[in-house]
Automatic annotation (TrEMBL):
Residues 1-19 form the signal peptide. This is Metalloendopeptidase. Its cofactor is Zn(2+). It comes from Sinocyclocheilus grahami (Dianchi golden-line fish). The active site is at E164. PROSITE patterns: ASTACIN. One of its GO terms (molecular function) is metalloendopeptidase activity. It comes from the Eukaryota. One of its GO terms (biological process) is proteolysis. Residues 65-263 form the Peptidase M12A domain. Zn(2+) binds at H163, H167, H173.
Length: 263
């Protein structure tokens, strides 16, 4: 093997070693174990972020909630072919493998909804996926350049990418929906008083869909707890139900996108 070939292989292996835990190589994805639930990963990544965040990964809103806005001001626009094109750009700071994770997360929207993520050309409203100081997004379409932050060190995972893109489409966290008290118990005593605002119920349009413990938008049991292991969210009536999964969008997540955007 000549020197140039050896150097190319060495550089490829170095890029792989620095890549995210979910990687694609020649069309095949390899997933390494992810020990942290989606909530823990997001909260740890956003600790100390310079952004003003609510619920720890929503940029403080400057516009109306996209789920409850008037005249569709918070929605991305649908064309005459019933397709919602969402222009996006990805920062050059992301590696090839990071981009593969992001694009694979987007592919579920493309295949199961009328949302189409398209490379931005001259569109004035678009999302810019950047390697900033955490995992966060604005809620719904805000107009102009709209940053979705996916820090390379903690956010470029399939489930987290889909979680933040759902925020950009207009979805709140599941445990803050208007009827949540029928389905989960919030253990206020297990969180600091200054964290309680993260559990305020929102005036959400639930679209006549059931509460979804398996939603990619549901936080885990110990979110914002004052010490490890203390539950802040307990499912009712069955306390054994899994919440805070990180694999990807549930069937109900997909249904809600299609209902919201009239797919």
């Amino acid at each position: 093997m000549d020197t140039r070939a050896s150097l190319s292989i060495l550089l490829l292996l170095l890029d792989i070693s620095q890549a995210s835990p979910l990687m694609r190589f020649e069309g095949v994805f390899v997933s390494e174990p992810e020990p942290l639930d989606i909530t823990t990963r997001i909260l740890e990544s956003n600790n100390g972020s310079s952004e003003v965040l609510i619920e720890r990964d929503l940029v403080f809103p400057k516009t109306r909630n996209a789920l409850y806005c008037f005249n569709n001001n918070g929605f991305w626009k649908k064309d005459s072919n019933n397709i919602v094109e969402l222009p996006y750009m990805v920062s050059g700071e992301f590696s090839y493998y990071d981009r593969s994770v992001i694009e694979d997360a987007m592919s579920t929207f493309d295949s199961k909804t009328c949302i189409r993520f398209v490379a931005r050309s001259t569109q004035s409203d678009y999302i810019s996926i950047e390697n900033k100081d955490g995992c966060y997004s604005s809620l719904g379409r805000t107009g102009g350049k709209q940053v979705v932050s996916l820090n390379r060190q903690g956010c470029v995972y399939h489930g987290i990418v889909q979680h933040e893109l759902n925020h950009a489409l207009g979805f709140y966290h599941e445990q803050t929906r208007s009827d949540r008290d029928e389905y989960v118990k919030i253990n206020w005593e297990n969180m600091s008083p200054d964290m309680a605002y993260n559990f305020e119920k929102q005036n959400t349009n639930n679209q006549k869909t059931p509460y979804d413990y398996g939603s990619i938008m549901h936080y885990g049991r110990t979110a914002f707890s004052i010490q490890p292991g203390l539950e802040t969210i307990t499912p009712i009536p069955d306390e054994t139900v899994e919440i805070g999964q990180r694999q990807g969008m549930s069937n109900t997540d997909i249904l809600r996108i299609n209902k919201l955007y009239g797919c």
